[in-house]
Amino acid sequence: MAMASSCHQVMLQAGVATTQLALLSSSFHSTSSCSSSSSASYLGSKLCCNKASSSLLLRNCIRKMASIVERETVRMALPSKGRMAEDTLALLQECELSVRKLNPRQYIADISELKNVEVWFQRASDVVRKLRSGDVDMGIVGYDMVREYGEDDEDLIIIHDALGFGECHLGIGIPTYGIFENISSLSQLAAMPQWTEDRPLRVVTGYTYLGEKFFQEKGLKHVQLSTADGALEAAPAMGTADAILDLVSSGTTLRENNLKEINGGAVLSSQGVFVANKRALLERKEVLDVAHELLERFEAHLTAQGQFTVVANMRGSSAEEVAERILEHTDFPGLQGPTISPVYTTKNGNISVDYYAIVICVPKPKLYHAVRQLRKAGGSGVLVSPLTYIFDEETPRYRNLLAALKS
């Protein structure tokens, strides 16, 4: 309460009444040298770095006031539409996490297996914005969105960087005809004499932050970025742009619109990632606990994807003898080594052990080759079944997360 009272006094001293907030917001947006206020998004403005010290103090107080608002639930944001949304829900389902939405028109849901967790469906860009502001604690979204709308914010921390869906890359596409016909690399594109201060290379994109940063790093001086929401591939043919900067997966859309990629024109690779607000992880144990459980489920499922359990019986005089045959005559010893156990049979009324059951783990592409090796080594009665989860002693990604939180 003392903090809130102190901040309230500062707000009054700074002249931030309701009407003045609107004036400040207008003034802030018209100033070019602004820094974002990630914890005060509800003000709808950005505080300028060249304002008086009272404005800076006001921003700090707003951040503190936002941080003391305690929320009992853990909020997770998911994409609301498109292929990314479908793949995200499929991953959660495969990890035995059921997202329940009472009404298909609602933007909020829950996960029955995770108590005290709210799921909020948002546009991909808003997933990142709300993570930065602290309105949600964690989310799943494309890495390209994290980089574009996260703007390298240190409050965003990627917990799992490879969820296995939404693979693509952000790259430059130029026409296959005209002055670009013989251009095949970024260096050639940059060296074209057509681009001057008065006639820059016009690039249309939805990734202005990443685009500007990329062209600056590559030393392209005369570039003009413009934005568009969709159908970027049509811009060069219409004459409204020289090139596009967009996501590419198979490249089919580029080719169908007489566009091509160029060497050195890839900005970044992207796929679905699990990301969280760093301050939420540090300040609220329940957020870290949920993140840990989700990470373990994701990791166990993704590690097991494409893996099969192979069980076979092998004749032998001892478990050690069977183990030696597997280790010396096959390429598939298992995760740490083969699991070997005796197979009990009856002979003349007596219980004996003539066979041993072996269990190994094999990737799907090498499954038939592994079975042939086992049979050649004396295996029989081979059983094959897909794996659902592989839980490690502790996922390395969680250790990496804890190390990142301490740094």
TrEMBL record:
<keyword id="KW-0368">Histidine biosynthesis</keyword>
<dbReference type="InterPro" id="IPR015867">
    <property type="entry name" value="N-reg_PII/ATP_PRibTrfase_C"/>
</dbReference>
<dbReference type="InterPro" id="IPR013115">
    <property type="entry name" value="HisG_C"/>
</dbReference>
<feature type="domain" description="Histidine biosynthesis HisG C-terminal">
    <location>
        <begin position="304"/>
        <end position="388"/>
    </location>
</feature>
<protein>
    <recommendedName>
        <fullName>ATP phosphoribosyltransferase</fullName>
        <ecNumber>2.4.2.17</ecNumber>
    </recommendedName>
</protein>
<keyword id="KW-0028">Amino-acid biosynthesis</keyword>
<feature type="domain" description="ATP phosphoribosyltransferase catalytic">
    <location>
        <begin position="123"/>
        <end position="294"/>
    </location>
</feature>
<dbReference type="Pfam" id="PF01634">
    <property type="entry name" value="HisG"/>
</dbReference>
<comment type="pathway">
    <text>Amino-acid biosynthesis; L-histidine biosynthesis; L-histidine from 5-phospho-alpha-D-ribose 1-diphosphate: step 1/9.</text>
</comment>
<dbReference type="InterPro" id="IPR011322">
    <property type="entry name" value="N-reg_PII-like_a/b"/>
</dbReference>
<dbReference type="Pfam" id="PF08029">
    <property type="entry name" value="HisG_C"/>
</dbReference>
<dbReference type="InterPro" id="IPR001348">
    <property type="entry name" value="ATP_PRibTrfase_HisG"/>
</dbReference>
<keyword id="KW-0328">Glycosyltransferase</keyword>
<dbReference type="InterPro" id="IPR013820">
    <property type="entry name" value="ATP_PRibTrfase_cat"/>
</dbReference>
<keyword id="KW-0808">Transferase</keyword>
<dbReference type="InterPro" id="IPR018198">
    <property type="entry name" value="ATP_PRibTrfase_CS"/>
</dbReference>
